[in-house]
Amino acid sequence: MLASSPITPWSHSFDVAAAPSSSEPEREIAPLPWSALRIALDLLGTGFALLDAQTRVAYANAAARAALASLDTDGASELRWRRALREAATATPRRALLQLGAEDSARHAALIPFDADGTRWLVALFGDACLCGPLELQMYAALQQLSYAESQVLSLLSLGHRAEAIARHNGVAVSTVRTQLASLRAKASRAGVHEMLDVLARLPRIWCTHGRALRG
Using one digit for the tens of pLDDT, what is the confidence trace for 22-74? Predict the structure, then answer.
């Protein structure tokens, strides 16, 4: 699946050392070594890649490298990816959103062309194949002071399981799961499961080298 829209090329420059306006307090700008930036970008759960006009990858963080590697095992997705790259790199550049992978495990990628110093570049942003990753879940559980059992329930909820399936997975009665769900909602101050899942979907994405999802 591929959706695209024509755009007007633009040039963009950003000077982090530019003097602040008179209404802003002056802040000291720390030096930014590439080694630190590279490590920081690898911590992002959102895949980020920069490609040149020949669609060669100039940089990709860990999440993007994993997403690109998955294309090697999915011929249909790779064909969509290559076609979108060609269209984005043309003289009339096009932003594009495309689906990679099968419906049950699909992730989406956005391609955004831009010009800098007379050179065409493409930014590729990769969405996640799951609602929420394991590190985000662990951090959210700690923030809300959830018990281990409640954290397990929340993890399975984030994967789309209902109370009955969670009960079977955990070897407990459905009534136990419903009690745990009520405790979850109370601790998180949420009226229902959908509100809790909405919170999980808006958590910052953090890359986990052991995989993005806790599979039951």
Answer: 566 667 777 878 889 999 999 999 999 999 988 899 999 999 998 888 887 77
C-alpha distances (whole Å) from 97 to each of 4, 25, 80, 142 are 6, 39, 10, 35
Contact assessment for residue 197 and residue 131, using Cβ atoms and an 8 Å cutoff? yes
The domain 134-201 is placed in CATH, from the list 1.20.1250, 2.60.40, 1.20.120, 1.10.10, at 1.10.10
Using CA atoms, how far apart are residues 102 and 47, in angstroms rounded to an integer?
A: 18
| 33-126 and 134-201 share one fold | no
Fold of 33-126: Beta-Lactamase (3.30.450)
Question: 9: which 2 tokens?
Answer: 């090329």
Q: Give CA 32 to chain center in angstroms.
A: 24
Q: Where are the alpha helices (DSSP H) in the chain?
A: 34-42, 62-70, 75-88, 134-143, 148-158, 163-170, 174-188, 193-201
Q: Where are the domains of the chain?
A: 33-126, 134-201
Reported as a pLDDT band with limits 50, 70 and 90, residue 214 is: very low
Q: How confident is the model at residue 149 (pLDDT cuts 50, 70, 90)?
A: very high
69-83 per-residue burial string, b: 16 or more CB within 10 A, e: under 16:
ebbeeeeebeebbee
> Helices 163-170 and 148-158 sit at what angle, rounded to 10 degrees?
130
Q: C-alpha distances in angstroms, 27 versus 15, 24, 36?
A: 14, 9, 20
Spatial contact of 104 and 74, defined as CB atoms under 8 Å apart: no
